[in-house]
Design goal:
Layout: H1 5-10, H2 13-19, H3 28-34, H4 43-55, H5 59-67, H6 75-78, H7 84-92, H8 100-117, H9 135-145, H10 150-173, H11 178-190, H12 211-227, E1 231-234, E2 240-244, E3 255-261, H13 275-289, E4 297-303, H14 316-321, H15 340-346, E5 364-372, H16 377-381, E6 385-391, E7 393-402, E8 406-407, H17 419-437, E9 441-443, E10 447-448, E11 456-457, E12 460-469, H18 472-492, E13 496-505, E14 508-509, H19 512-524, E15 531-534, H20 539-543, E16 549-554, H21 571-591
Parallel strand pairs: 3-4, 3-5, 5-16, 6-15
Antiparallel strand pairs: 1-2, 2-4, 6-14, 6-16, 7-12, 7-13, 8-11, 9-12, 10-12
Length: 594
Amino acid sequence: MALTLDQLNAATPADALQWLDGVYEHSPWIAEQALAQRPFRSLAHLRHALAHAVRTAPQAAQLALIRAHPELAGKAMVANSLTAESTNEQSKAGLAQCTPEEFARIQQLNADYNTRFGFPFILAVRGPRGAGLPRQEIIATFARRLDNHPDFELAEALRNIHRIAEIRLNDKFGAEPALGNDVWDWQETLAQHSDPGFAEKGQLTVTYLTDAHRACAQRISHWMRDCGFDEVEVDAVGNVVGRYHPAPGAAQGKYLMTGSHYDTVRNGGKYDGRLGIFVPMACVRELHRAGRRLPFGIEVIGFAEEEGQRYKATFLGSGALIGHFNPAWLDQKDADGVTMRAAMEHAGLCIADIPKLQRDAAQYLGFIEVHIEQGPVLNELDLPLGVVTSINGGVRYVGEMIGMASHAGTTPMDRRRDAAVAVAELALYIEQRAAKDGDSVGTIGLLNVPGGSINVVPGRCQFSLDLRAPTDPQRDALVKDVLDQLGQIAARRGMRYTLEESMRAAAAPSAAAWQHRWERAVDALGVPVFRMPSGAGHDAMKLHEIMPQAMLFVRGLNAGISHNPLESTTNNDMQLAVDAFTHVLNQIAEETPA
């Protein structure tokens, strides 16, 4: 019989400690410290209390916890002396069925890892879905993490221990993240569609209006119908739009808009954008199953294009809804010479209907978006959810520093006009200046010496600037300081430069009332409310121009990496996102006249 939170909260300290035995391998001190926070409001609250106990422990205790874990497919498994929990986990991952070659490879990796780090390799082998990772993925992860910095790897080992504990708690409490599993499965299935040249390599790439992109649109639209949406269509720019009608006779009859994009970067991850489509889809499906209507409608949109990969038309899908579709885009050509107009016509889209997509903001309550964080912050803090305070505003430039090419052997160091060193100096300044704000960021992502040679002092250096901050005044102050410094560097080094602004986007602060709804939802789940800006751009920043918006971030695995095949999150965190979204829906329903 599964344990309940009520039982745990009411139990004696000794009984409660006994019930949590085995959650953390041979380390009862963690449960003992966490139990001091009883009563727990939710299983998520308990998980966080346990993780917090580890996070605040001395490093010696953290290392002892890591070393309490057995090696994967190690001597303990061979000798059949693993704990019941570890036996179950390694068996589910098929480690007991390793081929001789796989077993030998793991043994070598174990030896190399212990030599480098001084503790055993820890991996939650039941994986983000809880069903077990393939052996080849385990081996590949093992080999990849050997290259990590020791401090980072210690933190990564602890994060995997927390995931192991989370799965063990699910087992003890009979908790199945059923909706999180469904959201996970939708994303896995959708990731089967990928553009040619990438699909053959097992890489995920879905760019605007390719065959894979159109297949994704059809798949999402079919799932929306299965979920019980009343209307589903693929609109004139390829957005997939599902509408769940309000209750009959609703006084206002307005709609809540939500969603995100389903296109991807090249060789990207499965969750960027798509998580924000499937979380509200799961919520609508549960409303439909319960025969429940709200005093407002729900419009879920899978935006067709956000990444700007095939054509230079970033936010095309959400931009069309606010009247920002530029007809000049239609004449753009992709790498194969196919115009956007031709691609849209081939896809059967009605270009003449694009102006009709513009929404009347008066018909909407607002826009909310769920998105994977795409960064390391939540992961490092052991928090599953984050409430977004603002989407950073940004400015981008492309430029060129012009000095003098000269012989690398005969030009004294104090006589050089080295364009690459000048840009490098600017890069170091940007790193220091952005850090002063705490949440500003600056990047020189492109740095190129055209026609460079190993024995020539660079006379030219092409570069980019990407400067972002949570508010426009903060962004503008950063930009001013960086451009002033650029001028000073050039003057001091006897150089000149060119600079062209290529993009400017206003910051999109979250609407206070909508941000508070997310905060109340997260708190109701028993999870600490953590507020953070979004450094990345999102569809929400386009809708922000005509209606209030607010976002919820979901923690990513693998240090929160995104735009990368390693992008991932767990079924438990997806479940919490669905629960938080449902809570927001219920809040709005309580506030909205019937």
